[in-house]
Write a structure and sequence with these properties.
Elements (H helix, E strand, L loop, with lengths): L13 H8 L30 H18 L9 E5 L2 H4 L7 H4 L4 E4 L8 H11 L5 E4 L12 E4 L9 E10 L2 E9 L5 E5 L2 E6 L3 E7 L6 E6 L13 E3 L4 E4 L8 H8 L3 E2 L6 E6 L9 E2 L4 H4 L2 H18 L31 H22 L3
Parallel strand pairs: 1-2, 1-3, 3-4, 12-13, 12-14, 14-15
Antiparallel strand pairs: 5-6, 6-9, 7-8, 7-10, 10-11
Helix pairs in contact: 1-2, 2-9, 6-8
Length: 374
């Protein structure tokens, strides 16, 4: 409930405040007789009431002590750092992520770009720290991290073993798969569409699968046919399906016949699957196929068909998806130590600031009433 519960001991300061508030109470005086006082109106034995300044002072003290203790307010954190790298995204539903985010959400990493502990800590330096700072990542929490930092993993258990397909590509003899395994027991198989095809040996290697039908699913399996680990997202690799060519408006009409005769797996139907842009002008799109102008406008028909076939075949040989970073698939190493430049940070929640301000105003009001004898 409080970040520094020992600070609540300062509530004992209420004792000297009560003693000081009673200093205005009537004191006994020794007199020779009561005759001079008989004409005065009697108080009727009324009980002395506590002055308003006493209650205001106690309320100010309670607010100030609560602010120093650092209350933990329920609700969303002031700052939330989300790790969107490959290893973290598999542990939580991305579709629900926008509903869980707050105004202070900072995203680090990407599916093809790992987020190391240093990048996460750098986000704290840039965006500041709040008393409800939350880090969502599968990276281990730093040693000697402060109590106000909530380091949460999207996975229910830490990863101690794993197997992954790091990359897959095509060559003249078929598909090749780069795989790796860490701390696994038992045989490991490489399967195509759920059917075991090749038993793997060792801790890593490159397996030759040969011909694989388009849009097939390559996966790693245990001897039981199930996933070999608790994180199956990196155990599979989807072979590209039919590619739909996207021709420029100025393309020669003979393109369709040339592609269908040379490489029939390429189509021109939008619903066929992946879109593959054809460009006659260089651009920054790495997924497009570039030709220096329309081949049919530069050379005879047979030579133009051969150039188109060579260009598409070369692109198909290179295409196979983005390789997965090895650091995102292997179990994490030893945690880092909490950096020295963030050790002295003692953030205060926004609610704590309001409590401190309210306590100061109440205390000043109590002193003002006390000076008037109230």
């Amino acid at each position: 409930m409080f970040e520094q519960p020992l600070a609540l001991a300062l509530l004992l300061l209420a004792v000297p405040w009560l003693v000081w508030a009673r200093r205005g109470a009537p004191r006994p005086w020794q007199v020779g007789g009561l005759e001079p006082f008989r004409g005065l109106p009697s108080a009727g034995g009324e009980r002395r009431r506590w002055p308003p300044s006493l209650f205001l002072g106690l309320m100010g003290l309670a607010c100030g002590v609560a602010a120093l203790a650092g209350p933990r307010w329920r609700g969303a954190p002031l700052l939330r750092v989300e790790d969107h790298s490959l290893s973290s995204l598999g542990g939580w539903d991305l579709a629900a992520a926008p509903q869980r985010r707050v105004a202070g959400t900072v995203v680090v990493g990407a599916p093809d770009q790992p987020a190391a502990e240093g990048e996460i800590l750098a986000a704290l330096r840039v965006h500041g720290c709040g008393a409800r700072t939350e880090i969502v990542t599968d990276r281990p929490a730093p040693r000697r991290a402060p109590a106000w930092l909530h380091w949460r993993s999207p996975w229910p258990q830490a990863m101690v073993s794993n197997a992954a397909i790091l990359a897959a590509w095509t060559e003249d003899d078929g598909w090749h798969v780069h795989w790796a395994a860490w701390n696994l027991e038992g045989p490991l198989w490489l399967a195509v569409e759920g059917q075991p095809r090749l038993e793997l040996e060792g801790a890593q290697g490159v397996a030759e699968l040969g011909a694989v039908p388009p849009a097939s699913l390559i996966s790693l399996q245990a001897s039981s046919g199930q996933a070999p680990d608790q994180r199956p997202a990196d155990d599979v690799w989807r072979v590209p399906g039919p590619l739909a060519l996207d021709l420029p408006p100025e393309a020669d009409p003979r393109w369709r016949a040339a592609v269908q005769s040379a490489l029939p797996e390429f189509t021109f139907q939008a619903q066929a699957g992946h879109r593959l842009p054809i460009r006659f002008v260089p651009d920054a799109d790495a997924q497009s196929v570039f030709f220096p102008g329309d081949p049919f406008a530069r050379q005879p028909e047979l030579e133009a068909v051969a150039e188109i076939a060579r260009g598409l075949a070369a692109w198909r040989a290179r295409w196979g998806g983005a390789p997965r970073p090895r650091s995102e698939c292997e179990p994490p190493g030893a945690p880092l130590s909490w950096p020295q430049d963030l050790t002295a940070v003692q953030p205060v929640a926004a609610g704590g600031r309001w409590l401190a301000a309210a306590g100061l105003l109440l205390y000043l009001a109590a002193l003002a009433l006390r000076s008037r004898g109230k």
